[in-house]
Design brief:
This protein has ten helices and 13 strands. With 301 residues, the chain is of the alpha/beta class. A hairpin with a 2-residue loop joins strand 9 and strand 10. One of its GO terms (molecular function) is DNA binding. It holds the Pfam family HTH_1. Keywords: DNA-binding, Transcription, Transcription regulation.
């Protein structure tokens, strides 16, 4: 049932004071106009118009209803005009969720260029390592580093995520450099929220049990412990790329790494009616990172 259409018909009849005139404006026959008015009155359970052979007149209920209908239709027209005027423009508040470390290192430093290019946008960036509910928590999009082959959301790959085993030269000098995957059992392994590492190696997938004196829910704590020489960690190159390039960290067992399906993604609820602000930000990050992101430049992967 076209409820807003019936309101529009009613408003035209009152304005023109004639069903025939209203029909000409709306390209409908007088019979259809009469049927729509009758349907509206039946739904409301009240007579809106007094009909005579010579004129139409609003009832008391009809007058009050008409005043409110005009206001509603005016608001709809204003809303449509606002959307139309903004079509193609990047505007509004963009609510984004990102992992804490990645957001701090690879989103926040690049916001200025995006905001300068889109002065009508406000970015609300929420950093958290929790797996947020994009729709339920009101986010326009989330950046996730995961294997999203089966995600129920739309997922656009922004960049690869290479994760490598590494340690400080000091740790390796004191404890030896493992040459086989089984030797990791004799080393201190540091991780957050993980009991096992699942790696791909020359013999296929392998699982490594994580053991060590440090347990934490913070990826940044693991990073600091790694740099302090506590043990061996499995880190993303976007996190430790500079340290690998400078020699502050060294790769361990380079033949083993996390599978290539784990990547940096932008996820959002739907491709349909994707707002310009979301499209603009996703495209910006995709171009910024790319198939060979800047943090991997100079690394042998």
């Amino acid at each position: 049932m076209d409820r807003f259409g019936d309101l529009d018909v009613f408003a035209h009849v009152v304005t023109t004071k004639s069903m025939s005139a209203a029909g000409r404006q709306l390209n409908l026959s007088p019979a259809v106009i009469s049927k729509r008015i009758r349907r509206l009155e039946e739904r409301l359970g009240v007579r809106l118009l007094q009909r005579t052979t010579r004129q139409l007149a609003l009832t008391e209920a009809g007058q009050g209803f008409y005043e409110r209908v005009v206001s509603i239709l005016s608001s709809i027209e204003e809303a449509e005009a606002w959307v139309a005027s903004g079509a193609g423009q990047v505007r509004g508040t963009l609510r984004v969720s990102a992992p804490t470390s990645f957001g701090r290192m690879h989103v926040a430093p690049h916001l200025k260029r995006f905001l300068d290019a889109n002065p009508l946008v406000t970015v609300d960036l929420v950093l958290s390592d929790a797996f947020v509910d994009v729709v339920g928590e009101g986010f326009d999009l989330a950046i996730r580093i995961a294997d999203l082959q089966d995600s129920s959301l739309v997922a656009k790959r922004l960049a690869p995520n290479h994760r490598v085993l590494c340690a400080t030269p000091g740790y390796l000098a004191s404890h030896g450099t493992p040459t086989e995957i089984a030797e990791l059992a004799r080393h201190t392994l540091i991780a957050h929220n993980a009991d096992h590492w699942r790696l791909d190696g020359p013999e296929g997938p392998v699982s490594v049990r994580v053991n060590g004196p440090l347990r934490t829910n913070s990826s940044e704590v693991v990073r600091e412990a790694l740099l302090a020489g506590v043990g061996i960690a499995l880190r993303s190159t976007w996190d430790v790329g500079p340290e690998l390039k400078s020699g502050a960290l060294q790769r361990v067992l380079p033949a083993y790494a996390v599978g290539s399906r784990v990547a940096v993604y932008a996820v959002y609820p739907s491709r349909r009616h994707l707002e310009q602000k979301v499209r603009a930000f996703v495209d910006y990050l995709g171009e910024l990172y790319g198939a060979t992101p800047y943090w991997d430049a100079g690394l042998a992967l």
